[in-house]
Amino acid sequence: MPETETIHIDSLAYGGWGVGRINSKVVFVGYAVPGDVLKIEISDEHKNYAFGRIVEITEPSPKRIKAVCPHFGVCGGCGYLNMPYEEEIYWKTEIFKNEFKKNFTPIEIKISSAGEDYLNYRQKIGLKIYPPHIGFYKKLTHRVTDIEYCYLAKESINGMLKELRSLLSKKPWKDAVLNSLSSITLTDAGLKNIIFGVKNNPPELNNFSKEVMKSKTADNIFFEFPDKKIVTAQNTLKRSNDYFTVKDKKFSYDLPTFIQVNKKQNENIINAVTEYLKNITAQTGHNFLNALDLYCGYGNITLFLSRFAANITGVESSGFSVKLGEKNLALNGIDNIKFIKSDVADFVSAANIKRNKKTYDLLVLDPPRAGVKGLVPKIAELCPEYVIYVSCDTMTLLRDLKVFVETGYIVEKINLVDMFPRTFHLEHIAFLKMSPNK
Ligand SMILES: C[S@@+](CC[C@H](N)C(=O)[O-])C[C@H]1O[C@@H](n2cnc3c(N)ncnc32)[C@H](O)[C@@H]1O
Fold first, then answer.
1. For the chain, how many structural domains are there in total?
2. Domain range for 320
């Protein structure tokens, strides 16, 4: 029997860890709820802090509830299914404010809760394959736990998963197909797309894809190879003229590109950005001249900048996304946006060289989780008066904001958007203004 210790959980910390103390040392405990009294074993000890694992819940917190999902505690996806959603919203805001005040003076921080829609919201899930397992990584490991139904995914996506599992269990491809895959991504933002992460490409995979299309489980199937090359599975591209809507805009989604996972909360990001721009342009009495949207994807945010700026440039490295972005401009009859396929670092370096020819007065950036480490000074050299930084990672956002402040920007306010309910992840929108002294 491992040695156990008793701990009282007082709060939650970044990453969703319950926090308590043993002999004044801070201990982080997974799946703990503030108010719990627990018997834990120490799993990882450091000089000033330790990590612990729950052995027994001696006195459950009055806030503790039974998790709706049988995989909770094993699957690495959800962290907060054991507390009411309002509690999660409270702690997400507190955790962010605590992290923020470590380096910045407090400012207005608001959160958009998902309200009633805190389950079955994901329009995209990425499943890992480790034959015979199809599921998600177990918490903090690369071992796959089988998932039959994901409570975060839309019902239609769970339907796709069920159908795929049933088709995969059939001969003649049963083992060959599963052994040839590393992942399966399922999306439904209006069109049902499947992206098979392919390790090798046996003939059975093509036959299986035809069977999937015949069963109407998907509208489109793509294969993504280890070198990240994506191809359309033979003869499967369907309904490429369909579109989905975000607020009043139409978006085509027939190619495998990045997509915000939560439709309703994506609209809240757009609302926050457009509300802010409406106020600024009302205050100044004029629109922006040149806006730049870095990491623009297929134009999810870019298209909404159209009515606030004379000219807008969207920069994106994925050719698929740029192609879709152009299609989306045509769908919406927008003619003041130009998409450029480029790495952001290359684009910003080139823009700095040509700076006297063209300046940007508004800059939006929405980078991947890793943020823009090292690039901030170059972005700041473009001297946009306003910067809107959309980020899905608290730590990289705060790291980058520190550099923005050092280079002459003021963080005016931050909106948190609970894009990923029941997990510790959050979406953030930071609104920055150039300091009068810059
Ligand atoms: C978080 S997504 C945001 C996309 C878009 N703003 C939206 O709301 O859908 C980040 C985007 O950056 C693109 N990207 C990643 N690395 C990049 C790079 N180095 N240069 C340009 N684009 C990049 C990805 O393809 C992806 O479309």
1. 3
2. 263-434
